[in-house]
């Protein structure tokens, strides 16, 4: 994606990431990963980010190359809402590592609402990207090599960002 696309993607996130209305039939949001799984050993910050302090919002939860359509170098549509649900807005930040080069991360992040651009939310988004990519690598390694290759690229991007202190991603 070009440097202009992060703004369109950020506008889409801003428009859709609203607190979800509650009704008697609404499912309870799942607890944060940090309360569902054992905490990793210290030193693995990317896997144990701070929990989401805000309300659950509507999330797409699968903003990956096959689900984001572009036209003329710009975001034109988001498809496949099979994972749509209530959750941490950081989940949709995984798009930064799945869709954008590291050089575009500052523009993407700057276009987000302040609470979604915070260091804590960004760390949770990075953790979601890593977690998702690790799961996909194991699942698709034998059956869908192209998906496994995307997962490998994302894992590299997340780990490169984690070891590069000067990097904003």
Fold blueprint:
Elements: H1 5-16, H2 33-36, E1 57-59, E2 68-71, E3 74-78, E4 85-87, H3 95-99, H4 105-110, H5 119-140, H6 145-163
Antiparallel strand pairs: 1-4, 2-3
Number of domains: 1
How many alpha or pi helices? 6
Structural class: mainly alpha
By DSSP, the count of extended strands is: 4
Helical amount? 40-55%
Question: CATH class, please?
Answer: Alpha Beta
CATH architecture annotation: Alpha-Beta Complex
Strand portion: 5-15%
CATH superfamily: Aminoglycoside phosphotransferase (APH), C-terminal lobe
Largest sheet: 2 strands, antiparallel
Name the average pLDDT. Answer: 80
What would your notes on this structure say?
The protein has one domain (5-16, 54-163): Aminoglycoside 3'-phosphotransferase, Chain: A, domain 2 (Alpha-Beta Complex), CATH 3.90.1200. 40% of the residues lie in helices and 9% in strands. The chain contains six helices and four strands; from the N terminus they run H-H-E-E-E-E-H-H-H-H. The chain has helices at 5-16, 33-36, 95-99, 105-110, 119-140, 145-163; strands at residues 57-59, 68-71, 74-78, 85-87. Strand 2 (68-71) and strand 3 (74-78) form a beta hairpin. Helix 5 packs antiparallel against helix 6.
